[in-house]
Amino acid sequence: MPDAGRLNANDPEHIGAYRLLGVLGSGGQGTVYLGRSPSGQQVAVKVLHARMAADSAAVRRFEREVALARQVAAFCTATVLEAGLSEGRPYLVSEYVPGPSLQELIATDGPRKGSGLERLAIATVTALEAIHRAGIVHRDFKPTNVIMGPEGPVVIDFGIARILEATVATTVSSLVGTPAYLAPEQLANQPASEASDLFSWAATMVYAATGHQAFAGGHAAAVMSSILTHEPNLEGVSEPPRALLAACLAKDPRDRPGVDEVLAALTGRSRSARPVRQADAPVRSPTVEEAVPPASSPGADTPVGESSPRGPVGEPSPLDSATPVSSAAQDMIDTGDRPVRTARPGLSLLRGRTGWIAGATACVALVVLAVVFWPFSREPTTGASAGPAVTSGVLGHQGDDIWAVAIEQVAGRPVAVTGSKDDTAQMWDLTTRKPVGGPMAGHTEDVCAVAVGQVGGKPVAVTGSMDDTVRVWDLTTRQPVGGPMKGHTEDVCAVAVGQVAGRPVAVTGSEDDTVRVWDLTTRKAVGEPMKGHAKAIWGVAVGQVAGRPVAVTGGVDHTVRVWDLTTRQPVGQPMTGHEANVYAVAIGQVDSRPVAVTGGADGMVRVWDLTTRTIMGQPMTGHTHIVTSVAVGQVAGRPVAVTGSWDRSARVWDLTTHEPLGQPLTGHTSTVYAVAVGQVAGRPIALTGSRDTALRMWDLSGRTQ
């Protein structure tokens, strides 16, 4: 980082516990100060603009994004130390790395060549890999965000662009990032992905190798037009990196290599496990018989269209190798579209490239970036060692994170209901793998919890949102039932549905540290909120113990609690065993005994005997990061749990032996936030929803050993 300038009269002397020593820089995002911690450590303190001071939802988003940023491994990145609000302005404290930025170094010392360029490329793409592993997309990778420190290049400001997006009201002219290094899809106002970061990284490496930008222009609009319509200027970039950088600068994110492939190419590492890229798989709608072969079929573990099984016995197979879309959108399919390997898998449509580029270019001419409809088509790839295959790639919510999923029967057909960051819920027919109608809109913030049940003989969904409300939806009409149910004062993070004295109820957990019970017939709160957790409640499940209805909750205070829903009082003392936040709870039965299954930030999955309120056996370990979600069900008569994690995988566990059943379910490119278990055509399936926007279906019928 550059040397600090002097503080002026308008600069604060302290931010939080940090004394400010000078100004390192300022810009559109805010001001960066050199600070000193109470222990004497020098730090960088970034104070963002005070656009979010009066917006409590934006403040909570800021806090969540900072929590993600703090998960990034320290090598090749500046460690995030702390964040908070100071007089209404959000601030972020990170490790101070002395040294010039890559931009300054190239301007003064000239381009990097040979081994110097190679070391720079390897260090920075390794940093990107660590950032992506934490579930973060940088969104603003550029030369000024690479500090040439005394111990090597360090990437800074990861997560800052996301934080800004979360705290600044969106307008048609808003654009987070530096135009010269933004990917085409970002300029088209579409969600950034890991593939977008690879584009920005490659543009940065071109600058490092040549001293000029890959896409030139006399002003911002000209640069953006060049990115959208011209090939990169690679003059001065020699092989071997030239071809690699050209691939990363492809206009279509699906044509770019993955971060792991780039790192492998730079280091010469073997890529024997690389997925096969299917060049021209046609899009078709399979029949139910094709999608779900009979259990006795010899090829039940074989993907559609393959003649031999792949992977060990017990791995799930695809229920579908193609992605059907709604009939209203058939005319928008690019039949030459290729399955993707690196970006956002899931169900969507790809408009022809000419259409989106032309539309975005027209916006650039006005120097206003209007929204261009360009969702991505993302279909699964297969390979001999690529791990279990996704059964159906389904992308909903036009490219936003899927927070929650639940399974129900509507008119005799299995359906899923998902909740998303786009403030809506969506229903999906699990037999056809098609969305049912449009999004269910009404919430004004993320829909982060979904449960399903019956009210008056009709199937309903109950949703909880970051807008602090709970809503009920008639799944037959997909319309809201009455208005929002209000009472919580913070995000509603968890929802479960059950019965108390024969009446349907919903139980909700919130960041306001309370649990509430709602009568779903009257849509009114039942009694006062239940208090006991010291912090937010992120997991709720409803069941019965000794014939009495109970709720089980998991909290950020590391505890699990049982509540009698008739009296709304806690049952016994909190159950302890997790070493960190408890984020997920489900209820099931093992050997006819009611049990709770929980997962949390310690990466462990635990089973609790709800009769004795004690831990059963050893924790189930295998996930390498936070366990975000848990669902329970049965496979071949055996009780199982399915868990999702920040490690981008889901796992299936035998609840009797506490052992994993088969290999992890892999394929998602970001955090698996949601899991559900159900049946399709008589076969047990799991659904997983992710931050990568994909809803995936897995056949569990082979998971018996």
From TrEMBL:
<dbReference type="GO" id="GO:0005524">
    <property type="term" value="F:ATP binding"/>
</dbReference>
<feature type="domain" description="Protein kinase">
    <location>
        <begin position="18"/>
        <end position="277"/>
    </location>
</feature>
<dbReference type="Pfam" id="PF00400">
    <property type="entry name" value="WD40"/>
</dbReference>
<dbReference type="InterPro" id="IPR019775">
    <property type="entry name" value="WD40_repeat_CS"/>
</dbReference>
<dbReference type="InterPro" id="IPR020472">
    <property type="entry name" value="WD40_PAC1"/>
</dbReference>
<keyword id="KW-0812">Transmembrane</keyword>
<feature type="repeat" description="WD">
    <location>
        <begin position="440"/>
        <end position="483"/>
    </location>
</feature>
<dbReference type="InterPro" id="IPR008271">
    <property type="entry name" value="Ser/Thr_kinase_AS"/>
</dbReference>
<dbReference type="GO" id="GO:0004672">
    <property type="term" value="F:protein kinase activity"/>
</dbReference>
<keyword id="KW-0677">Repeat</keyword>
<feature type="repeat" description="WD">
    <location>
        <begin position="485"/>
        <end position="528"/>
    </location>
</feature>
<feature type="region of interest" description="Disordered">
    <location>
        <begin position="270"/>
        <end position="343"/>
    </location>
</feature>
<keyword id="KW-0853">WD repeat</keyword>
<dbReference type="InterPro" id="IPR036322">
    <property type="entry name" value="WD40_repeat_dom_sf"/>
</dbReference>
<feature type="repeat" description="WD">
    <location>
        <begin position="620"/>
        <end position="663"/>
    </location>
</feature>
<dbReference type="InterPro" id="IPR001680">
    <property type="entry name" value="WD40_rpt"/>
</dbReference>
<protein>
    <submittedName>
        <fullName>Protein kinase</fullName>
    </submittedName>
</protein>
<dbReference type="InterPro" id="IPR000719">
    <property type="entry name" value="Prot_kinase_dom"/>
</dbReference>
<feature type="repeat" description="WD">
    <location>
        <begin position="665"/>
        <end position="705"/>
    </location>
</feature>
<keyword id="KW-1133">Transmembrane helix</keyword>
<dbReference type="InterPro" id="IPR011009">
    <property type="entry name" value="Kinase-like_dom_sf"/>
</dbReference>
<feature type="repeat" description="WD">
    <location>
        <begin position="575"/>
        <end position="618"/>
    </location>
</feature>
<feature type="transmembrane region" description="Helical">
    <location>
        <begin position="354"/>
        <end position="376"/>
    </location>
</feature>
<dbReference type="InterPro" id="IPR015943">
    <property type="entry name" value="WD40/YVTN_repeat-like_dom_sf"/>
</dbReference>
<keyword id="KW-0472">Membrane</keyword>
<keyword id="KW-0418">Kinase</keyword>
<keyword id="KW-0808">Transferase</keyword>
<feature type="repeat" description="WD">
    <location>
        <begin position="530"/>
        <end position="573"/>
    </location>
</feature>
<dbReference type="Pfam" id="PF00069">
    <property type="entry name" value="Pkinase"/>
</dbReference>
